[in-house]
Amino acid sequence: MNAIIGYTRILLRRLKGSLDDRQYRNLENVQTSSHNLLNLINEILVLSRIEAGRIEVKPADVDMKSLATECAASISSLVGPGVTFHRELQDVAPIRSDEDLLRKVLMNLLGNAVKFTDKGSITMAVRAVRTQIEISIADTGMGIPKENLSDIFEEFRQVERHGSTQKEGIGLGLAIAKKSIEMLGGSITAQSQEGVGTTFRIRISDYQARG
Question: Could you say which of 22, 34, 89, 115 has the lowest number of CB atoms within 10 Å?
């Protein structure tokens, strides 16, 4: 798959100007489809490794405010012009967890919020809740239909939101997010109202290795 992507990139660069518009668009479609398929393969591999217990958790001190700030900065350029991005990040004590896994989960949730919010706001918050840290990502997007909300963390479940032609990717991102957070000893929940917005909430504390 990487070879297809590489050769397509070369063709797009070298043949630009010598192909008609339809031929050039076809090559672009090949490249897009290849990237999508590669993402699917990678996500299936990640999911299978998690389910087989083959993901190695690498605990270290994680500053959740700093990590949230980094993720917000990475995604901010993708936020639409009609959307305000709020950060409500409190100073919290470091936790012992896997920073890379947490980063991937937060980027996935932020990406979903950006994808399905074309007006209003996205709010990322970090706060201490007793012995845990809570990270929430709330948007004022189109929301998730009530009948689909209980299924969003299931594997290969695509949620079609009313009024949108977009779907939740290939149906693995949220499943991986849930399994990753649970592997770290935390929890993830979702609340949504169609036409009002969606909030994902993570609760996590120090990672405890299983004996």
Answer: 22
Query: Which residue, 111, 110, 99, 105, is CA-closest to 177?
Result: 105
Q: Where are the domains of the chain?
A: 2-51, 60-204
60-204 fold:
Heat Shock Protein 90 (3.30.565)
* pTM attached to this predicted model: 0.77
Cα–Cα distance measured from residue 107 to residue 80, given in angstroms and rounded to the nearest whole number: 16
The rounded distance, in Å, linking the Cα atoms of 201 and 102 is: 13
Encode the chain in three state secondary structure: CHHHHHHHHHHHHHCCCCCCHHHHHHHHHHHHHHHHHHHHHHHHHHHHHHHCCCCCCCCEEECHHHHHHHHHHHHHHHCCCCEEEEEEECCCCCEEECHHHHHHHHHHHHHHHHHCCCCEEEEEEEEEECCEEEEEEEECCCCCCHHHHCCCCCCCCCCCCCCCCCCCCCCCHHHHHHHHHHHCCCEEEEEEECCCEEEEEEEECCCCCCC
Asked if residue 196 lies in contact with residue 119, where contact means CB atoms within 8 angstroms, the answer is: no
For 64-78, what is each residue's pLDDT tens digit? Answer: 999 999 999 999 999
